[in-house]
Amino acid sequence: MMNSPEPPQYPSTPSTAYLDSMQADIDAGIAAATVDQPADREQEAYEGQRQLWEVVTGVGESLTDTLTHIVKDLHAHPEVAFKEVRSMNELANIVEDAGHPVTRGVYGVDTAFEAVWASDGFDPHSHPTISIMAEYDALPGLGHACGHNVIAAAGVGAFLAASEVLKGSGLQGRVLLQGTPAEEGHTGKEYMIRGGALEGVDAAVMVHGFGYDVGSHAWVGRRSVSVTFKGVAAHASSQPFMGRNALDAATLAYQAMGLLRQQMPPSDRLHAIITEGGDRPSIVPPEAKMDIYVRSLGNRTLMDLSERIDDIIAGAAQMTGCGVEARWDPHPMSLPVRNSATLVERWTATQAARGRVALPAGTVPDTLAASTDFGNVSNLVPGLHPMVKVSPPEVALHTEAFAHWAQTDDAVKAAVDSAIGLAQVAVDLLADGAFLEAAKQEFEETGGAVSVTELLAQP
Asked: InterPro entries from the entry (predicted)?
């Protein structure tokens, strides 16, 4: 009898060759990236806003202690989706202490809040409304490993800076601070949208932490489906022919999705796990369950891939003689982000003034893409969702390492720079009608408003 080799006790270490090559390409893109400073363009788009920008900068920098507190406090007290009661109240109290009334539990979401600044004589039919959004939920077990504490600080700071500057400006309009909970694994913003959060809003802005400064980065849409295959139990030894194996159905579906990947666009993603597959090897499993994520960079391709998954699920059930129940979107789907190039250009200039180079789209590959419910917002109004450098490039989101960086001095600086940048973009949208009109025109030319309900209703 031949001796069998000893089985490995540990998994092999994944190669970093692809990441190393990708990083080399990114470094080359960073070296080639240049951004005009606003001072070089004073006679063009920024002349009218230059003085307002200077005032915004001063107010934003004066908020450093407040933003430091938010970054550190939320990081020390992480709360997961729909349970962010303390986080919501901490942020709302800060805004109230600055003199702004806050409404908690808005738009049908208990842990959402909203503060409003509006000019005297504000007319929603003729004056613009800009939403500044702030996330503050954390990840189960990892805390703020996506840096939502930094997002919250940037959003609060941007609202406080913009509203303070606008008070004496004579400009007409309205700025909202919308606290948007439950982004991680959920779509809190979609629930708020269905409750009316974007009614009357002309544009929405927020920022997200990352390992790079990026003006516009890819965010894929995401759907989820929970699948239950129903079979017939039987004794696996004496009468297996009397059973219908639900685990076989789940296994066939899992393998079929693996084969489907060859025919998927490079930007599409599939993730699946079998969460239940029987209780004992001696019993043909009468029930098996799967959870599946479907992701894509486009709205139509997201729906196309979803249809293929439906076919796979039904086919696996038919091949094994099982029944099947598929429950799509236990939480509403998140759509791909549509970053407004018009707003991104202005954001890039604000960050240049802070000594940051916000990389153009494509410098960081689209393969480094996750999902966010801001996609739902950006498909309804012109949206800005840039990335700000919080950690070294090699540190990935949703890791303990990123959670560490999210409470450092780098995180605080990112929050301050972002608060100033978001406030400057918001003020410009109220001060410069042509700028806002350009963002709206671009939005219409790139597809106009698209809602989740409309996508689901399409044949």
From this structure: Amidohydrolase, Bact_exopeptidase_dim_dom, Peptidase_M20, Peptidase_M20/M20A_hydrolases, Peptidase_M20_dimer, Xaa-Arg_dipeptidase
